[in-house]
Structures are given as structure tokens and as C-alpha cells.
TrEMBL record:
CDD domains: DUS_like_FMN
GO molecular function, one term: tRNA dihydrouridine synthase activity
Name of the molecule in the record: DUS-like FMN-binding domain-containing protein
PANTHER family: TRNA-DIHYDROURIDINE(20) SYNTHASE [NAD(P)+]-LIKE
A single cellular component GO annotation: cytoplasm
Amino acid sequence: MLPEKLPTETQMINSNDVEAGPSADRRTEAELVEEQMALPVEFPKTYEQELNYREKLVLAPMVRTGTLPTRLLSLYYGAGLVWSPEVVDKAIIGSERTVDLIFQIGSSDPELAVKAAQIVQQDVSGIDLNCGCPKPFSTRDMRPAERALWERLADIVALGKRRGIPVICNGDGDGWANWEKIRTETNADSVMLARAAERNPSVFLPTGPVCNMTEVVPKLLAIAKHTNNPWGNTKFLLTQFKASPPPISQMSKQERKQAAEIISKSKTIEQVAEGLEIPLDNAQQVFDDVVRKIAERSEKDTNIWEERHEADAKGLVVDEPVNVDGTGEVDGFEVGVGQAQSSKD
């Protein structure tokens, strides 16, 4: 016969605690974590060449922004690694290889995630699983009002180092001063860039970024032309670029406005190239130069932080003005954490 009243879940738990008595495992969460971290690695590495995630500035996975032109430009200017935009599992199943990179899969289904990973596992350098980025939010500015709490990552980094797991910090890294501060506060192995790279992919340069309009845009158009990047995406990338402030650029306010209007009104890559007086007949050569430089950097696998310090010691560094803990204005440009934009235009 069943009892007249079943015990509640809380009552059952309390009862078990009582029965366990003094021998119950009453260790703290920190102690349990310590025990787990002391265990041997369950899955030893079996691949021939380990991907190096340490001592790098890397490009974050960004929907719409992280397409091939942005990835190539980021690698060209010094990014150690680049992530693809998030691609849902069903979209990759049945597709064919196009380019090697760290591939981000968006999935909430373990079986589909595995199937998608198996499709690309021989053709990418790494696989990143995104389990919590709702698609509508991926293209919005979700930046919180306050800066990222870098210091909270320190404990995670410490645990990772004990297990030989590199940890990359992503959040409000907006210039070399910020990135050094992130590394100091967290001891992270590398730093990931999103908005800073979106507005100017040359931020990865150890000597500081170059002028978007005169240096980066011509390369972007050449890459987009050579790779047949869809015009809609190419125009989106151009509109995300922010005019470089002094001393990086010597363009006047009127010249900046004129360039922005040309990009806004253009309906083809040829129109924007003609309006900005940028030749496209050398697209093949520009593309080959970009690929060659990427290959040269890949062979060296250099330490970006050492490169930066060497460039600084030689007096080669020219940075955009940056406010490490907030924002400020320099010649009408908002600089610091977040996207820079002209407040006077």
C-alpha cells in the first residue's frame, strides 16, 4: 500500500543528509574543483601538430563581419588566429571545403554538432562550439554599459594553466594599452578582438593601425573583387570601418564625409572603387601579396607581444589615441572602449 503522503524533494534531500551523518562529503566547491583539476587529462592529444593559442591577438567570430575579406586582412596585419562567423550545424552538413580556419558551429543538438564537426574536421585548424548566441542577437550591439570585468577571468586562467589549457580573453579590448592591461589583470594566454578589428583590421599591427581609407580599403576591395565576395557583405564591411583619427590619418573632415557618402551611395564594387579612385585591375596582385605575407607570418609563428615591445623600443609605434578605462575625444573622434566614431560629423 502506498503511503498517504509522499515526501517532498526537499524532505528527501534532508533525510539523506541526516542518514549520511558525519561521513557525508561536505567539501566546498573550491575543494571539489581542486580535486578535479588534479586528475589526469582523459583524452591525450593524438594530432601531429598542436595549434598554438598562446601569445597572440586573434580575431573573434563575428556574424557578417567575419567573412573571408576580414579574415584575410586580419591575418595580413598580424592576427595570430581567426575565427569564422557562427554557422549553424545544419548549414555545414553537406557542404564542401573552402578555406582553413577555426570554425565556429552554432548548435543546441549534440548529434548535429558532431556531424557538422566531422564534415570540417580535416579542413580546419580548430572547431569552436557556440552554445549560447541567439541568432537575432548576433548582429546587435550587445555591449553592456560598463566595461568587461577582466579580473574575474584570473581564476579561470590559473586553472587552465594548471591543465595546460590556453585561455583567450575577449571583452572590451580596444587598443594595445587595453590589451596589455587585460593580460596583466588576467594573465590570459591571448586576447581576442571584435569591434576594434571590425572598425579597422590593421589594429593587429605591432606598430599600430594604418589609415583605413588609404591603406585598408584598397586591399579590402581587391580581395572582395578577386574572391567574388557578395557586394552586400562588402558594403557592410566598408560601412563598419571608422575613419582613422589623427595622427593615423591626415584626411580632412570634408574628405571623410565625402568618402562615406560615396560608399553609402554605391551599388557595386566598381562604383565605390571609381568614386574613391581605387584601381581594381591589380586585384590579383594585391590578393597574391596578401596571401604571401600571411604564409610568411604563419611560418614564423611569432610572439605578437615581443614584436610590439621591439617596435616600441625602436620608436616605430604610432597608435590611435586610447583611453584605457573609458572614452575620450581627440579631434572630434570618440576613442576608447567601444566603436570609435566622429562626434562632429
